Structure formats: structure tokens, C-alpha cells
Amino acid sequence: MNYKILKKEEMHIIGFKKWFSTENDSQMTEIPKMWDSVTEEMKKRITGLSNNEGVVGLCADMYDGGFDYWIGCMSDNECPEDLEEMTIPASTWAVFEIIGPMRPLPNAMQDIWKRIYSEWLPNSGYEHAMLPEIEYYSAGDMMADDYKSEIWIPVKN
Q: Do 133 and 58 meet the contact criterion of CB atoms below 8 Å apart?
């Protein structure tokens, strides 16, 4: 797995969220359905609010056998009334580069998620910092074999 360790200042996320159960790994099929439901208009709106022209998926607030999943962007803009915002404190991140399409399932992103928790984190010397996890999606064709995305895991030693 190709990764780097980065320190980032506080980040602000603007977007919308939905709670997902982790029972039987149902989030692995349900989160892609959430992405499928996002209209082109909403994607353009979120991208327009973004500091980096990318879109993020965020895994946060784990409770009751599941977690909130956000679709949004990193932004310094004011949050529109119909969206929600979250502030993530300054932290250290393990950033994993992913190259490959987002579909069909399973995809490159899901494969790396599994490897982070089964291989990398137990052997890395780092602990999870108990902050939200970030999926960064760059602009471009998400179905292309050379599509680039990232997973950001908050870590501490």
C-alpha cells in the first residue's frame, strides 16, 4: 500500500450525512447507493463550495452499531442552511493513495479499506486517533482504471 504521513491544520467539512449500520458489513453496499442518489446539481454545488475541487466521504460519529457517513467537501466557505458542517481538529493523517475505478463492487477503495484495518494499522506502530476518517475523491472519471482517490486515517503514535 502506498501511503504518506501528513500533519494537517483544522479542517472544515460542509455536506450532508446519513447513518449506516455496520451489521454484516451492510455499509459496503449501502454507501455506494447513497453516492448513486446524489444528483449532478448537488455534486456541482458541493464542488463549488470546495477548497480543493474534490469531494469527500467521511466516516464519523460511530454509535449504535454504525456511523454517520457524510458526502461533502473541505471548505472555508460559510455553510448553506440546508447543509451541515463539521470541524475536524488539527491532526496527523496516514494518507493512502488509491488508483483504480470506484465500480463495480468491490472496488479499489473498498479493497484498501480492508487492507488498512487487517494489515497496515495492526503493524504500523500507529493507533487510530478516534477522529473521522476521510475518503478523498478527485475530479475525473471515477470508473477509469487510472482514477486517483485517497483514504485518510487519523493516527497517533
A: yes
DSSP code, position 81? T
pLDDT value of position 64: 85
Structure-block grid coordinates of residue 111: 479493497
CB atoms near residue 58 (< 10 Å): 23
Identify the segments of the chain with pLDDT beneath 70. Answer: 105-106
- What integer pLDDT is reported at residue 139 of this predicted model? 83
CA distances from 134 to 2, 41, 81, 154 (A): 16, 23, 23, 9
**pTM for the whole structure:** 0.90
Strands (DSSP E) along 75-138, which ranges?
84-88, 91-99, 127-128, 133-137
66: its cell numbers: 454504525
Distances (CA, A) of 152 to 11, 24, 91, 133: 13, 24, 11, 6
Residue pair 130/155 in contact (Cβ under 8 Å)? The answer is no
Neighbours of 37 (CB within 10 A): 10
pLDDT tens digits, 6-42:
999 999 999 999 999 999 888 888 998 999 999 989 9
